[in-house]
Amino acid sequence: MTEHWLIIGASGGIAQGLLQNLLAAGHQVSAISRQPLAEPISGVSWYQLQSAEQGAADAVLTRIFQLSVTAVVICQGWLHGDGHLPEKSLQQVSREALQQSMEINLFSPVFYLQALQPWLQKQPGIRVAVLSAKVGSISDNQLGGWYSYRMAKAALNMLVRCASIELGRVNKTAALFSLHPGTTDSALSAPFQQRLPAGQLQSAAATAERLLSVIRQSQPMDSGLLLNWDGQPIPF
Asked: Where are the transmembrane segments (predicted)?
């Protein structure tokens, strides 16, 4: 049976792995990203949007949801760039890095979930996975550091928890949850790969396969949780 997936933040490494996996299986894929598409990808309905704020995504979502959507994956994330690296100490925290991290890791997903809300309420059995990070777990934090990223992902998990409760009141068959993808070979993780234990770094293709399995097996009871790449809950 052909599925229809919506990938938001579709220009990143994990998102590309998801796209390739779904296309290879013959599924319908719609994709949204801020970055322009370098060249067309056969089988993907691709849309370029800078933001979903103030109704900016409404026309695109209306077009996408003309066909029933199986699942939505929000893949946006920012850890470093523009001269900023993850902070090792409180003294390294800057307003610029905080703003950038919150803008991409939190604000953008907020407004996409806001724009998606009318559609998610009407889609029986829809699954919505928001890529988060295990380092956003407060109870799991034993190392400190990475202030901007940890704070933004912790806030993202709260967003998902709140939105899942609201969605569950009107669509009891839906599941909306945060999802930790594990360490993936991508531009986000590139500066930090040398010290990883053997076997921890996964290719984008392997990560995509694991995440798709978790999303497909998810149930309404998983709503509001932070799930690991193997489907196990991670404590907040």
From this structure: none
